[in-house]
Amino acid sequence: MAIKGILFDKDGTLIEVNGTWIPLYYDMFKTHYGLDTDGANVLLQRAGYDVESNSFRAGSVLAAGTTKELVSVWWPELNADQQTERVHYINNTIAPQAKKYVKPLMKLDQVFDELHAMGLILGLGTNDSEASGRAHMTHLDVHHYFDVMIGADSVAEPKPSGQMIAHFAERTGLKAAEIAMVGDNSHDMDEARAGKAGLAIGVLSGNARHEDIAHLADHVINSVADLPALLRKLP
Q1: Which of 100, 130, 153 is the last residue of a domain?
Q2: How far is CA 217 from CA 84, 179, 190, 204, in A?
Q3: What is the largest CA-CA distance in the chain?
């Protein structure tokens, strides 16, 4: 079945993940929670930060998880209500501040223009919050390309449950088999499988290496800049 819609992951797929989130989290820990650099490093490493490479490990909670998962790793001593409150605070107060650090991986409008010209419907499916994802795309002035934006809080269960594929299909009228999931982590490929998407396309622009996702993907490309050419080659 022909692909008619693309559901994009955000961090590491459309924006530079390390340069966006690492400075934001350092700022958050120091400004809002009174930690010094060593204290911030302890919590960041607990969630998958590699100090030596100054990057997130592929498949780690930092690279692929939700704010809820991060909070449970960083502050396991909090009770359920306190964790919920902290998730809400990070999603609504801290995460939108990432726009001062957010860097697109390429000229996204050129890629999206090309995909639109091919008649494709575009969506965003991120384990960040919907509000944060929308704020980042708006800041980069590419929000208007997306018919649907989906965050971890837009569905009952985030990636890799398959629910983002189902939500995108429902909102657009597409069949799951007509959707390609594009992302930089194994949970994006697992989302495609769980949601019975037509294609799982891995990109190497995030923290995952080829060997981390190639066995889970139908295709692996260097970045979304290569996506139009790949899709044109498909039957």
Answers
A1: 100
A2: 34, 14, 9, 12
A3: 55
Whole-angstrom distance, CA of residue 225 vs CA of residue 218: 17
β-strands 49-50, 5-8: how paired?
Answer: unpaired
Its sign, for the CA torsion 166, 172, 178, 182, is negative
| Mean pLDDT in consecutive groups of 10 residues from the start of the chain, 235 residues | 94 94 96 96 96 92 93 97 96 88 95 98 96 93 98 96 98 98 96 98 95 96 98 91
- Helix, coil or strand: residue 41: helix
Is 73 in the same domain as 42? yes
Query: Please, which residues have CB within 8 angstroms of residue 228's CB and are 6 or more apart in sequence?
Result: 111, 114, 115, 118
Residue entry with tokens 């306190």: 82
How far apart (Å, rounded) are the C-alpha atoms in residues 151 and 125? 6
pLDDT at 53: 93
The pLDDT of residue 99 is 85
User: Which one of 41, 69, 100 terminates a domain?
Assistant: 100
DSSP label of 1 = -
Handedness of CA 26, 209, 177, 180 (dihedral sign): positive
Q: Cβ distance 56 to 18 under 8 Å?
A: yes
Q: What range defines the domain where residue 197 resides?
A: 5-16+103-233
